[in-house]
Amino acid sequence: MDAALPPLIQALLDPQRYGHTVREVELVQTHISWVLLAGEFAYKIKKPLRLSFLDFSTLEQRKAACLDELRLNRRYAPELYLDVVAFFNTAQEPRFDGPGKAIEYAVRMRRFDEAGRLDRVCARGELRPAHLSTLATTLAAFHETAARAAPATRFGSDSAILTQALENFDELMQATIAPGVSARLQALRSWTQAQHQQLATLMRSRKEAGLVCECHADLHLANLVLIGEHVQMFDCLEFNEDLRWIDVASDIAFPYIDLLAHHQGGLANWFVNEVLSHSGDYEAAALLRYYAVYRALVRAKVAAIRLHQAAGDAGEVLAYVALAERLAAPPPARLVITHGLSGCGKTRATNERLQNDPSASTLRLRSDVERKRLAGLGSKASSGSPLDGGIYGAAAQQQTYAHLHTLASQLLRAGWSVIVDATFLKRSERDAFRVLAKDLGLAFEILAPQASADQLRQRIQARSGMGQDASEATLEVLDRQMGTIEALGTDEL
After folding, report:
1. CATH label of the domain that carries residue 281
2. Is the pLDDT of residue 431 over 90?
3. Tally of domains within the chain
4. Position 178 confidence tier, pLDDT thresholds 50, 70, 90
5. CA nearest 195: which of 165, 223, 173, 170?
6. Which of 30, 247, 252, 440 has its CA 20 to 30 A from that of 15?
């Protein structure tokens, strides 16, 4: 028994207290909760705390928070979140039923294999792009159905967003961390204020467009678990609705920065690209770096609270401050386009680029995906278009490349490097993007994978048979491309 633990938690470490088979009880502590892992269940009890961002100081407040936690997490994990249970009798001799008033409450969850938590999967070096793709699909679908904040509410207002960001600095400034940190935090505070001034109009328009939702709001890797090959979200932020009703871009920013904190820049880059490709919300990219810095400093604040509670070292706090500094100063943006026939390996090559960007500052636009989005189709849906017709006709082709140009311009101006994955068979199509890079003063590259005619045909047939890609290229399309492709000029080479 740990004498520093309150009597109720000490008592609940006894396996005999539970009405089901429990061989031993494992205690996991966060800065705001105790979690008792007992047999097939986990019991999460709120600590009686009052902090700047939560108040669990009374029993009724803790009960309300438990009920909120159950309701909110059952939106996407009903099989994990079972009910809220009460404890009766005394803290020294707690019971799950009995006369009198409850002395405490807990959220009861079905246990899962802790080895599947994504922070642990990542630490073992087993986290793969496919896992982040499933998370991206789940998160994009959740955001699509989440409750929207009404325009008249205070949630997600640009003033509230700035207040929350500045509170991080106020609290971190009060913590004794290490020499020189105050000056670094002040520089980040100035960056945050300047960015907010630039982005406030966009923040307001996104709220009006319904992009401030009742989100998860605590999506770090330890709140994600791999069950089979599916990544399951759990343990959302239940205790503060002002922190939960946020722009979806802020929700995306949390796993992004946590992957960076785990030194997985390529996976962070892949995750963001998968989410935005699913949702088409590329406007969010303009806000993502602002929210990423905010999220990194939230983690620094949480680490500072733990430092105060456990009297540890300041290494974790400093690591998150350093991450925020890197996010606020990304490498120079560049524009990359691809060139080549269907099946030559453009998407494979750009996949590798995304997964090998340690700064996680590159976004990809795929013509196959955006063409279908413009037509109101899912990326893997069949358009039923004839050769050179439908969404592949001349007018649709021109519209698609104009749309890609507009998106690329927006992302580059927001400080992101951009890869445009398209055939770019015509010199004029390539030149338009070359001029864009020149006008913005950015580096420009053409990525042109090569393959033999036999390889192209084999790949197209294999891809068509699988039906898992946005491309609808057929052998007839390939033959047409071979007759119309305009080779790279000597200046392009």
Report:
1. 3.90.1200.10
2. yes
3. 3
4. confident
5. 165
6. 30
